[in-house]
Design goal:
By secondary structure, the protein is α/β, with parallel strands linked by helices. It has two domains: about 110 residues, Rossmann fold (3-Layer(aba) Sandwich), CATH 3.40.50.10090; about 130 residues, 3-Layer(aba) Sandwich (Rossmann fold). It is about 35% helix and about 20% strand. The protein contains ten helices and ten strands. It has a five-stranded parallel β-sheet with strand order 2-1-8-9-10, sandwiched between helices. The protein has a five-stranded mixed β-sheet with strand order 3-7-6-4-5. The two termini are about 15 Å apart. The mean pLDDT is about 95.
Length: about 260
């Protein structure tokens, strides 16, 4: 670590990146800029949903503009959700103009940016990038009683958001728009100084690759950093020790947590 300075606080550190392969490039580039040696080890895959019927039906409801069945809100919680929704919207021969009159909520700046790329400015982006954070944002927005929500999300998404909206009197269609598949086995993870997790499913996929070994023993010489408290809670449930948790639940927040952990 003698070559570490303020500009390269992660110099000499091997950092395991467990994000899906198609989403890891920017994170790995940022790690290299900080002096780290990133190691790609995807522990989840993002795959299309087998049955697109429910999502296609919801999109047709939007297109039909039936006042009785129309959605008041479309809620998108990830860049993968945005991509999956737009794929089906395009399959229906429509673009962003089909969403005129529907309010759109996005969890997190990356999801918001993905919408901006598709000519959509979200009406609501919560300050805290969790289901609880967006529920609090809706509470500040006003009553949702009687309003209809479309949640286009991962197949294994937490139920907290849908339940919270239903508890507030909303009508909710929660539809799987893509699948998040943790790796079920395969090669064991390579040794690393730091292991990063960006979702609960990345933790599960990592543990699945351990072949029954105890996570705390495998990671005894590594430090673990999680993108947020939900991911950290899953890690602890699975016996994965956590050394640091990002204060902002984003990739920049994760990078900030890494730098803080290294004393930068």
């Amino acid at each position: 670590m003698s070559n570490q300075d303020d500009s390269t606080p992660l110099a000499g550190q091997r950092v395991l990146v467990t994000r899906p392969a198609h989403q890891s490039a920017e994170f790995m580039a940022a790690l290299r800029a900080l002096g780290a040696e990133p190691i790609a080890f995807p522990t989840i895959e993002i795959v299309p949903i087998a049955d697109t019927g429910p999502l296609d039906d919801a999109i047709q409801r939007i297109i039909s503009r039936s006042s009785e069945e129309q959605y008041n809100w479309l809620v998108l919680t990830s860049t993968n959700g945005v991509a999956a929704f737009w794929d089906r919207l395009a399959a229906a021969g429509r673009d962003a103009r089909a969403l005129t009159g529907i309010k759109i909520a996005a969890i997190g700046p990356a999801t918001s940016a993905a919408l901006h790329e598709r000519s959509i400015i979200p009406d609501l982006v919560p300050e805290i990038y969790t289901a609880e954070g967006i529920l609090a944002a809706f509470d500040e927005w006003g009553s949702v009683t009687g309003q209809r929500f479309l949640l286009a999300r991962a197949d294994i998404a937490r139920r907290a958001l849908a339940k919270g909206l239903i508890d507030r009197g909303a009508q909710v269609d929660e539809i799987a728009s893509y699948r998040t598949v943790p790796v079920s086995g395969g090669d064991p993870p390579p040794a690393a100084d730091i292991v990063t997790f960006t979702s609960s499913s990345t933790v599960q996929g990592y543990v699945n690759c351990l072949g029954g070994r105890v996570p705390a023993e495998v990671l005894s010489h590594s430090r673990v950093v999680c993108i947020g408290p939900i991911t950290a809670a899953t890690a602890q449930e699975l016996g994965v020790p956590v050394n640091a948790v990002a204060e902002e639940y984003t990739i920049p927040g994760l990078l900030a947590a890494l730098k803080k952990m290294m004393g930068a």
